[in-house]
């Protein structure tokens, strides 16, 4: 039996814009995303000689073929034409579920990285093509680091790493949001909070921490905040503690604050722990090197 280990970083949307609905039913997006140090850990056992299985230490995570880890392994094996003779995947969760941090997609990407490190069948670009069949966020989760994403999220441009002095407070309130439902609502209502993506890219290139915070924007946030007022309440708490910016990530429900001071981030996290069931401190991760698996 062969045992593989891999980690799966969470992601944050510094910007998220929805440009319109496509004829294929997907939406054209434009987003600036980063990987953060809050991550899941995965163990893959190949050659078990038993039926495939996925287990997770967090209740409520799908354990069968509907799990994205399973789908990623199936997609890889089908594309590579291999049979691992049994597969067991164990996931240790730290990324909040249904939170807009691409936890499931990052886990799927970790499975693809681990299998490709072992079997070596695909280039990085080919692996991202396989990942897109699993989910729209999977190609970015394979890419990692700071990136500008377009299309469904698969057209990726590398951006410079964020300044190391930035600290993130991640707060997950006690609700989750249906992504398909939010897309339908946005299609009907239109985008009322459009990010200035070029300004965010420029801020990152200049390593301007205040401008990075000032240009955070998410097209979904007004819809989610109208339904759940706690979004704006938590955002204001983060800003009151000195965050240079605070926004919803993805379709939610995590609200994150960007801090230039580790002390202020820690202070904000302490107050957030009284308001939310899950609060985490994190740093931005640098882009992975071409030969590096994310460990």
Structure explained in plain terms:
34% of the residues lie in helices and 27% in strands. The chain is an alpha+beta fold. The protein folds into two domains: 2-158, 2-Layer Sandwich (Ribosomal Protein S5, domain 2); 167-282, Alpha-Beta Plaits, CATH 3.30.70.890. The strands form two sheets. Strands 1, 2, 3, 4, 5, 6 and 8 form a seven-stranded mixed β-sheet that branches. Strands 9-10-7-11 form a four-stranded antiparallel β-sheet. Helix 1 runs parallel beside helix 2.
Helix content: 25-40%
Unreliable spans are: 290-295
Structural class: alpha+beta
Query: Judging by the overall fold, what is the CATH architecture of the largest domain?
Result: 2-Layer Sandwich
Alpha plus pi helix count: 10
N-to-C order of helices and strands:
EEEHEHHHEEEHHHEHHEEHE
Main beta-sheet annotation: 7 strands, mixed
Mean pLDDT value: 95
The CATH first-level class of the largest domain comes to Alpha Beta
Q: Tell me how many strands there are.
A: 11
How far from one another are the termini?
21 Å
CATH topology of the largest domain: Ribosomal Protein S5, domain 2
Overall outline: globular
Rg computed from alpha carbons, rounded to a whole number of angstroms: 19 Å
Q: What is the number of domains?
A: 2
Strand content: 25-35%
């Amino acid at each position: 039996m062969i045992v593989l280990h891999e980690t799966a970083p969470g992601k944050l949307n510094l910007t998220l814009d929805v440009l319109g609905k496509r004829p294929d039913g997907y939406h054209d997006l434009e987003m600036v995303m980063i990987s953060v140090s809050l991550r899941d850990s995965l163990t893959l056992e190949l050659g078990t000689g038993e039926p495939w299985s996925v287990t997770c230490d967090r209740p409520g995570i799908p354990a069968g073929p509907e799990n994205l880890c399973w789908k990623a392994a199936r997609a890889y094996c089908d594309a590579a034409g291999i049979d691992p003779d049994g597969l067991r995947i164990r996931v240790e969760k730290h990324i909040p579920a249904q939170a807009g941090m691409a936890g499931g997609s990052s886990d799927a990407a970790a499975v693809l990285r681990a299998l490709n490190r072992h079997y070596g069948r695909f280039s990085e670009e080919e692996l991202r093509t396989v990942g897109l069949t699993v989910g729209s966020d999977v190609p970015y989760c394979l890419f990692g680091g700071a990136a500008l994403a377009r299309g469904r999220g698969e057209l990726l441009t590398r951006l410079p790493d964020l300044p190391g002095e930035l600290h993130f407070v991640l707060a997950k309130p006690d609700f989750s949001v249906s992504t398909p439902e939010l897309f339908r609502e946005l299609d009907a209502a239109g985008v009322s909070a459009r990010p200035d993506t070029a300004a965010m890219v420029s801020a990152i290139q200049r390593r301007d921490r205040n401008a990075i915070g000032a240009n955070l924007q998410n097209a979904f946030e007004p819809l989610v905040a109208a339904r759940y007022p706690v979004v704006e309440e938590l955002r204001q708490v983060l800003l009151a503690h000195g965050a240079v910016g605070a926004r919803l990530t993805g379709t939610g429900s995590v609200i994150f604050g960007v801090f230039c001071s580790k002390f202020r981030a820690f202070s904000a996290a302490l107050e957030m722990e009284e308001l939310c069931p899950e609060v985490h401190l994190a740093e931005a991760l640098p882009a992975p090197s071409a030969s590096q698996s994310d460990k």
